[in-house]
Amino acid sequence: MKLAERVYLVTGGAGGIGAGVIRAVLDEGGRAAAVDLDPADAEAAARRLDPSGESVLGLGCDVTDAAGVERAVADTLARFGRLDGAVNAAGAVFLDEAWDASAEDWNRTFDINVTGSFLAARAVGRHLKQAGGGAVVNVSSNCGKAGYPNMASYNASKSAVIGMTRSLAMEWAADDINVNAVCPGGVDTSMLAGVAEWLSPRVGVPAEELLAGMGPAQLRRKVTPLEVGRVVAFLLSDDAKIIRGQSISVDGGDTPY
Ligand SMILES: NC(=O)c1ccc[n+]([C@@H]2O[C@H](COP(=O)([O-])OP(=O)(O)OC[C@H]3O[C@@H](n4cnc5c(N)ncnc54)[C@H](O)[C@@H]3O)[C@@H](O)[C@H]2O)c1
User: Fold this and answer.
1) Which of 8, 148, 154, 257 is catalytic?
2) Is residue 149 situated within a structural domain?
3) How many angstroms separate the alpha carbon of residue 45 from the centre of ligand 1?
4) Residue-wise burial string across 104-134, b where 16 or more C-beta atoms lie within 10 A, e elsewhere
């Protein structure tokens, strides 16, 4: 039980990788706030993950709203009496050929993926500084390391998350706040299904067929949200204190660095 009694604020916690992270935190004896855009979705996910209602709190919050993020931190502290870190899994992708991509979509991508992650990391980080330390894990992407077509804004935003992770890790080391990132790829979530739906008419292949082939080549299946969650749970734990400012690929070997 690497995370016994500990409490984490997990953005994007209503589904996909965020919910996989919460499952892994629970498996290690921890507790979590599942933070997501729609309060009803967040609460439903909390009940699904922990029918007892004791270990997971569902909270509605838009991570681009600084005041809302502060409220989510306060609500988590009020409910559990402690907070040991943050996992930034809230994210969005707006696909388009670069020629056609709008500035609005570009900015929304950065608002959610970069600014939202920063606001949640800092709001939780302020508490960790006072409490004597903790850990933050940002969910970047293999897209933050390698280039993919039709995803310029997403690729750029996920590279920014890697840069932010390095900077926060250095700045907050003195306060014993460990900051790392994971770079997943080919994870079986609604985001990946959305990518297949977008591509399907453009390449003339049914979306289900495209989706079936979207797992990492070496793995020959998609990565599960829980597999990403277990790596995140390790990075939150004291066992990972020696790993700092890293962005670790969890994409079944697709990105060999
Ligand atoms: N699925 C993959 O293959 C993959 C690969 C690499 C990285 N990622 C990243 O993993 C993270 C989780 O994605 P996922 O695949 O689980 O997709 P997902 O769509 O299932 O989950 C994303 C969650 O973020 C929430 N969200 C979006 N905007 C938000 C906002 N402004 N405030 C609060 N919550 C918000 C959504 O409601 C959703 O629940 C994202 O950052 C994504 O970029 C996914």
Assistant:
1) 154
2) yes
3) 14
4) ebbebbbbbbbbbbbbbbbbbbebbbeeebb
Q: Are residues 205 and 93 in the same domain?
A: no
Q: Give CA 43 to chain center in angstroms.
A: 18
Residue 2 lies in a domain: no
What range defines the domain where residue 99 resides? 7-185+224-247
> Quick one: pLDDT band at residue 152, thresholds 50, 70, 90?
very high
Q: Is 154 a catalytic residue?
A: yes
Q: Tell me, what CATH number does 36's domain have?
A: 3.40.50.720
Average pLDDT of the chain, as a whole number: 98
pTM: 0.98
Ligand 1 contact via 232 beta carbon (within 6 Å): no
* Residue 148: per-residue pLDDT: 95
- Distances 222 to 142, 145, 151, 251 between C-alpha atoms, Å: 14, 19, 20, 9
User: Is 218 found in the same domain as 155?
Assistant: no
Is position 67 within any domain?
Answer: yes
Tokens matching residue 224: 């599960």
Residue 214: per-residue pLDDT: 96
43-96 pLDDT, tens per residue? 999 999 999 999 999 999 999 999 999 999 999 999 999 999 999 999 999 999
Rounded Cα distance between 46 and 157, Å, is: 28
Predicted local confidence at residue 114, as pLDDT: 99
Nearest ligand 1 atom to alpha carbon 14: 39
Q: In total, how many domains does the chain have?
A: 2
Examine residue 1 and state whether it is found in any structural domain, yes or no. no
Q: Is 69 in the pocket of ligand 1 (CB under 6 A)?
A: no
